[in-house]
Specification:
The structure is a single chain. The chain is mainly alpha-helical and 103 residues long. It is built from 7 helices and no strands.
Length: 103
């Protein structure tokens, strides 16, 4: 799923993000998702205002990953605060809410 998050196909990226979101409900896999390099793709999806559905899914995944303290420094160094502050200004209520869950 980590490699598929960068796929050219929009549906493929969305389903990969949904899979990662489900995997990120477990503390062990939360760390592994970050260690294996999913953050850049997730942050890019969460920052893409042209696709609100993918943005929502990515923010939910980031929320799950943020619940593990081991991921905090990686998330901060990759720029999650910029993504979240921009999401707070979204016209979409769900995007704003999911950003608030993460922050």
């Amino acid at each position: 799923a980590i490699h598929m998050i960068k796929d050219a196909d929009l549906d493929c990226r969305r389903y990969a993000c949904i899979a990662l979101c489900n995997m990120a409900n477990n503390a062990t896999t939360q760390e592994q998702i970050v260690v294996h390099g999913a953050l850049p793709g997730l942050l890019a999806m969460a920052h893409d205002i042209s696709d609100v559905e993918s943005q929502r899914q990515a923010l939910l995944t980031l929320c799950n990953l943020a619940s593990n303290e081991m991921n905090h420094s990686s998330m901060m160094s990759k720029g999650i605060m910029k993504v979240l502050t921009d999401a707070f200004e979204s016209p979409d209520a769900d995007v704003r809410e999911y950003a608030a869950f993460t922050g």
